[in-house]
Amino acid sequence: MVASFEPSEILTDELLERFRARAGVHDRENTFPDDDLADLKDAGYLAILVPQELGGSGLGLAEASVLQQRLAGAAPATALAINMHLVWTGVAKVLADRGIDALRFVQEGAASGEVFAFGISEAGNDLVLFGSGTDAAPLPDGGYSFTGTKIFTSLAPVWTQLGLHGLDTSSEDAPRMVYAFVPRSEVQAGRVVVRDDWDTLGMRGTQSRTTVLRDAVAPADRIVRRLAPGPNPDPLVFGIFSVFEILLASVYTGIARRALEVAVGAARRRTSKRTGKAYSQDPDIRWRIADMALAYDALPPQIDALARDVDALADHGPQWFSLLAGLKHRAVTAAKRIVDEAVLVAGGSSYFSANELSRLYRDVLAGLFHPSDPESAHSTVATAWLGPLED
To answer: Which helix (H) or strand (E) element contains residue 211?
Structure first.
């Protein structure tokens, strides 16, 4: 970590206001925030988790979490999109901190401006990291070709490297889960097709389009791991799960914070015709604001504690996955409830699509769909406390 860290020096108030002003436009027009990405690149944001000696900021996961909360408060879709790039740079840091240099190319690439996307999600694949419907076929030179369909591929218009997984069923030691990176040149070659199909309720600026792989080639030097399918304690699996869950929790916590701020502003501006006083003096509104704040205040310390544990190589053993799934679940469900309450405080104006709270209301819903979903989180926590289901 760096000796001193001031979030506003990396994401200045002026920069955040620019992001906030653009967010409504990208939501309305269903477009990718190219200007936001350019500004983030100029600010060195793509390399915040990259060591200083490799050209990055040398921040830890806890510090990146704070920045993502701050960014999400201004432009949730921008924050969620860049989250997927930060997941790979975060995984690279997790591995490097544990003496594994397999993703050094990710760190060097991020420092030079490359954009890494996350190609793991597949329709109907509730195994997530532990299985895949994508075929990974070994090539004579040590590379792999991938055939399958990935969904929710954020950063679709701009990624330069797509991190993905597939199942090798033909090698001597098969089956093996193969984790690798496919370059953007495979799009030009026609072996990767990025569908223009992102027309959603919220988080529209992420442009998380469907990605079709047709013998897409990952070269030998971009094959990161070959693992047995199923639950696996490998550092790569831990790195993906821990960074993904913590940074997701951070984005939705940032949304919750912004909704609370907007609700407070609305309560101070709105005046009751019945009493002639601001709604901030209404006992019912004050209770509602307090309830929102009570829910929000619990989130940042939880995220900070687990992020620092990852940075410090803490050992929670088999409890790790329960803790991480629970963190993400609590953050997204609390954020949704906070936004719901904010809409009620702000009143009917929030129902108009141009209103910021209307956008936050739609954006926050996406949190429930990310792994771990509510069912998976509860199953993971139940297993941690009660043991696995009996056969």
So the answer is: strand 209-218
Alpha-carbon distance of 106 to 36, in angstroms, equals 21
Burial 148-186 (b: 16+ CB within 10 A, else e): bbbbbbbbbebbbbbbbbbbbeeeeeebbbbbbbbbbeb
Q: Which residues contact 251 (CB under 8 A, 6 or more apart)?
A: 68, 69, 72, 76, 79, 80, 83, 367
The string of pLDDT tens digits covering residues 158-202 is 999 999 999 999 999 999 999 999 999 999 999 999 999 999 999
Domain of residue 51: give its range. 7-115
pLDDT band at residue 4 under the 50/70/90 scheme = confident
Residue type at position 265 = G
Structural domain count of the chain? 3
- In terms of phi and psi (left: phi > 0; alpha: psi -120 to 50; beta: otherwise), the region of 327 is alpha
Does residue 338 share a domain with residue 210? no
Give the end of a domain, one of 227, 247, 275: 227
Longest CA span, the chain: 79
Beta bridge partners of 208: none
Residues 249 and 273 in one domain: yes
Give the integer Cα–Cα distance in Å for 150 and 118.
Answer: 9
Same-domain pairing of 222 and 257: no
Residue 75: what residue type? Answer: A
Q: What angle do CA 331, 61, 244 make, to 5 degrees?
A: 50
Give the per-residue pLDDT at 391: 83
Q: What angle do CA 219, 225, 228 make, to 5 degrees?
A: 130
